[in-house]
Amino acid sequence: MTIRFFQVDAFAERLFSGNPAGVCPLDEWLPDQTMQAIAAENNLAETAFFVPSRDADADYDLRWFTPTVEMDLCGHATLATAYVLAEQFGDDKPVIRFSSMSGPLAVAREGERFVLDFPAAPPRRVAEPQSYADALGAAPADVWRGGDFALAVYADQTAVADLRPDLEKVAALPDGAVVATAEGEAHDFVSRCFVPKAGIPEDPVTGSAHCALIPYWAARLGKAEMTARQISARGGELHCRLDENRVKIGGRCALYLEGRLLI
User: Which of 28, 41, 46, 70 is catalytic?
Assistant: First the structure.
């Protein structure tokens, strides 16, 4: 069997930045173990698979796999999938609709940007900062939890950039992922995201984390539209907007690779 394959840098202002995602268009689903094996072989943070949807309210059904597990939500691979559909398959709809494990998702085209429409996950404060201090290597001012993400809030961007986490301790925390965040210097806020439980030591750019980050920073800064940067080694730019119980997360994409998988 031959499967087309694309590797896209998502939330990238240029090639070799942002977060690489694999995208596999399918006519019908492969066995779960085959998709998991493909994702492991690709060894990217996520590989997305999509098929034409039979749901009248969606254009495509979408699934995401890390090298070790299937995820219920992934931002950058969804952005990459919409980019591939628009740029490689000629899907010129202004909004591409997906059905997923997290419900209906949509990606709109706004000039050179693709904009995710995801459910907001407003975080709540949790009273256990010490375990996060031990795991991340420095004490956060406080810790919030939204969805699968813990937000460890620091005093400034330098504190986030200087973190040297103990990934075994991060993996032992109750959260699916841990995000360190602070007010930014050139952006409204910055972040770093650690997901060792899913085989991702540090995710370069994490769209889904912004489902919690955007409501938090919108409330703290008193503004609905913001710019954000994930300050990983690769780095990535995100344009953020809180829209009631939804978040809009925009970014650019760059195609790195097109090929065929021989399965």
Answer: 46
